[in-house]
Specification:
It is built from one helix and seven strands. The longest helix has 11 residues. The chain is mostly beta strands.
Length: 104
């Protein structure tokens, strides 16, 4: 059974990179009052035990986070529902905008 994870990047702070064992499927920008605050990628976990690369933007320090620490979802629809829940705050101007997948 396939499992899916959400990779998070925050412009100017850090980026999460897809590594071997992950297959990016969908990408979304989270906008707060028109400004991009985060970029999310829903990816299929192809291998059970991998380490996700998180690169800090200002120092280029690389952290490798074991996939066991990521929340996993049985479907991409469940992952998207979680993203929508995490990025909605009452009547605030928020938007989760689907984006084309990029090489990063």
């Amino acid at each position: 059974m396939s499992m899916y994870v959400i990779l998070t990047s925050k412009p100017g702070q850090f980026r999460t990179e897809a590594v071997d064992g992950l297959r990016p499927l969908e990408a979304y920008d989270y906008r707060f009052y028109g400004h991009v605050k985060a970029h999310f990628v829903i990816a299929e976990l192809l291998e059970e035990k991998i380490k996700i690369r998180v690169v800090e933007d200002d120092t280029a320090i690389v952290n490798e986070v074991p996939s066991k620490f990521l929340e996993k979802f049985e479907t991409t629809a469940q992952a998207l529902k979680e993203l929508e829940h995490l990025t909605t705050f009452g009547h605030m101007d928020t938007e989760l905008r689907k984006m084309p997948l990029s090489a990063s």
